[in-house]
Amino acid sequence: MRTYAGHSTAKESNELYRRNIEKGQTGLSIAFDLPTQTGYDPDDELARGEVGKVGVSIAHKGDMHTLLDGIPLQEMNTSMTINATAAWLLALYMTVGEENGIDTSVLQGTTQNDIIKEFLSRGTYAFPPGPSMRLIADMIAYTVDEVPKWNPINICSYHLQEAGATPVQEIAYALSTARAVLDQVRERVTEETFPRVFGRISFFVNAGIRFIEEHAKLRAMSQLWRELGRERYGVDDQRYLRFRYGVQVNSLGLTEQQPENNVIRIVLEALAVTLGRNVRARAIQLPAWNEALGLPRPWDQQWSLRIQQILALETDLLEYPDIFEGSKVMDGLAAELMEGARAEMAVVEEHGGAVKAVDYMKTQLVESHRERVARIERGEQKVVGQNVYTTAEPSPLQAGEDGGILTVDPEVERAQVEAVERWRAERDEAAVRAALAELRAAAENESLNVMPATLAAARAGATTGEWAGVLREVFGEYRAPTGVEGAAAIPDDEALHELREKVDRLSEALGRRVKILVGKPGLDGHSNGAEQIAVRARDAGMDVVYEGIRLTPSRIAATAVQEGVHVVGLSILSGSHRELIPEVLRELREAGADVPVVVGGIIPPADAERLMQAGVARVYTPKDFELTRIMGDIVDLVAEHHSAAATA
Amino acid sequence: MSAARAAAGDPAELGRRLRECDRGAAPAALNVIEDRSARGRERTRKLLAEVSPAALGGEAGAHLVGVTGPPGAGKSSLLSALVGRWRELGRTVAVLAVDPTSRRSGGSLLGDRARIEHDPRDDGVLIRSTAAGTRMGGLAPPTREAVQALAPAFDLVVVETVGVGQSETDVEEVTDTVAVVVQPASGDTLQFLKAGIMEVPDVLVVTKADLGEPALRARRDLESALRALGSRDTPVVSVSSVPPPSGIDDLVEALDAHRAAIDLPATRLRARRLTALADFLAERGEAGLRALGGRREAERFLDSLHPALDAAALVGALEERASEEGGG
Description:
The complex is a heterodimer of chains A (648) and B (328).
Chain A: H1 10-22, E1 27-31, H2 34-38, H3 61-68, E2 77-81, H4 86-99, E3 108-111, H5 116-122, H6 129-146, E4 150-151, E5 154-156, H7 158-162, H8 167-186, H9 194-200, E6 202-205, H10 211-232, H11 238-241, E7 245-248, H12 262-272, E8 283-285, H13 298-313, H14 328-350, H15 358-378, H16 411-426, H17 429-444, H18 451-460, H19 464-475, H20 494-510, E9 515-519, H21 528-539, E10 543-546, H22 553-563, E11 567-572, H23 577-590, E12 597-601, H24 605-614, E13 618-620, H25 627-642
Parallel strand pairs in A: 1-2, 2-3, 3-4, 5-6, 6-7, 7-8, 9-10, 9-11, 11-12, 12-13
Chain B: H1 3-8, H2 11-19, H3 26-34, H4 38-50, H5 53-56, E1 63-69, H6 75-88, E2 93-99, E3 108-110, H7 112-115, E4 125-131, H8 141-150, E5 156-162, H9 169-174, E6 177-182, H10 188-195, E7 203-206, H11 213-228, E8 236-238, H12 248-261, H13 264-291, H14 295-303, H15 311-327
Parallel strand pairs in B: 1-5, 1-6, 2-4, 2-5, 6-7, 7-8
Helix pairs in contact in B: 2-3, 2-4, 3-4, 3-8, 6-12, 8-13, 13-14, 13-15
């Protein structure tokens, strides 16, 4: 049992870890901020507004020393939510171990390190798919001998469900990813080592509100995993064939309206992964009830921890053997999912495997999510408090002075920027240059493993941005597919039909088709919202410019001007809206673009007000789930702005 | 007030600014050209008059390049590398990316821009995305007019379209040089060439050279097809846009060489006349064309007009002629 933590500075996170260790916690779970996850230093233009948000900023081994100060690493099991830069963060972790006199071969823990789902859902990738997979393979091949208790990769179906995956897609794409990883590692290790590599692969899955089907999903996954091990890789040692997984339950289904109901959703989802002993999760993380509102506070996280403790200690959940053994219904459900997943995995293989099929899988996910959103919008999928039973008493939980959420001090970023500049000035520059040259040589030579050079750079004092910068130069920059171009049009209904007429009338009045720019500023890669808005705007008859994630404010402004758009829609979920949105507004003004700007994301009411004062025309939050209505609103806004006669 | 109106002001002023290489006027000029209302077309006419050969004292200096090929051939990645190389050479580039999607809703997702890497702070690069409208690979009148408006202000004006077979004729009409992009192991282009469905392009580009053998084979197949067709001089260039990119310099050279060899005034004159005809057709339809006595007659009429007239003036002449003929 642990909670996902790591906020703002290394020092504060360290204090939190030490408090938790005093209370008996033996596991560390480190969340990094987005610049660290995507390989940028705190003083990079792209890092602006993101430093210390959603996790801790680690720019070099000095930061890692501060983070782990006084913690007995040899006794810890450390989980790092890190992917594109996993090799680097593991190297920093090992370096701190070494410099504290610990034998690094005893280190235990997990690096998430699943890049495919970053391309498909989470967005914190740094390099193109091919080289990214090589980094992963290098790391697995290195750790299996050098840090044998380390789980070098944790394949995540979790984020696929968050991006809209159906259970079949979740199983199929996660297992296809595992297959792509294993195929690549097989070339880099000996035949005797390979079964151990297979055994070190673990999964990070999701559990949604349809908890019976979700349980069946885990049974299906577990069985398919064994099949894959036995049939494709010839692994027959039972220890290595076990499907090992941890869980974070679904956040996508949590609502902003009547948020206290989310606690009930979370409990039911936790049952999905604990009910049957044969496929019970090894580790569970539960989200906080108020995730759709903003960053959870320690008290909110404690509430989630208590759910697990009550399930484990008060109920009789853990007292029985597998309660579904012999259940025809459960076996039938699992068989159905397996059949669907096998078929979908075959399609991925036809595309040339998970790496080549990123485009295909992304399109499928956008499509599934589009369907889900439309079902909720039409009321076919019921969500209590959102599209049914929507009238409620005011919630006393949100009445506190902080509005029921945590905020990060903007001073953190400034301090971290100064700190990294100081670090660079004080280190042995020649040693860093030499280490980075060595890294470049290793990256350029496919037959070398990049881990030793990465460790050397970590020891020498290189920064996160420098490590990733060298690799970007060698491997190239990359922009993941947006998946929106292949999304099917939604079926016509009256509301959409009316909207389309409204768009046509306005386009007529403007002389050209209404054109919208959908932009995602900052490093936040959660693109669901932006994608769905882009697709719906198209279905409403607009011309849509969508460039995907990770855009600087200056790029958004330049695009708005060059493309001659009538309105700009910005989506942001990382909590950096306070810094980034005013900056986009300023850049737009400087570029001479007088266009209305609307913003969507997890934006607390106080912030929304501030943004409106700064010049934002509309703010939408997760409670605004009716996309057609939002579109109508935006069209009115453009019409008003042009004082053209678009009568509704 | 919209961005368009805020920055636009007088269309003649925008045209004048483009003539004087003020690239900052380009987005607002494009807003004017894309406006298909009667007022917009009137404004476009004023704008284009300022960039006519008469106003410029000759043909605009830009190299007008068409980049076309089947979906997924790697056009955007290629453009990404090309734009980067051109910028290194100090050349300014405008890309008109024409998206083929045309939906029942009338809306489009314009995705090419995302795939063309460029520095947003660099005012030497302009990328404008437009929806093709109804015809696969065809060019809407605003795109044709945009090429002419931007030609005085940029060193290169690139029109990127999707097309295989006959649909690239539109691009060929408005540009100096057409590069057809082909990916290895897709036989379409080869078949179309052999069958004579497709005209031989000015430059053929085989992408994904990093694949090795399949890319080499594709190149050899195309070269032998070209020899069989008697076009042994058409360059076939192999490129790879994954790092480290290769073949980009060869392509730049091939494009430059083609540009140097053509009869520029004749090419441009033809482009203006065909643009005018396309614009007239879009507005007046087949009935308008009949009023002119059919396509051939219309082309003959255009050929009789003064070579320095800009496209918009030519449309005016066509309209006048049509109403005369219709009335008489």
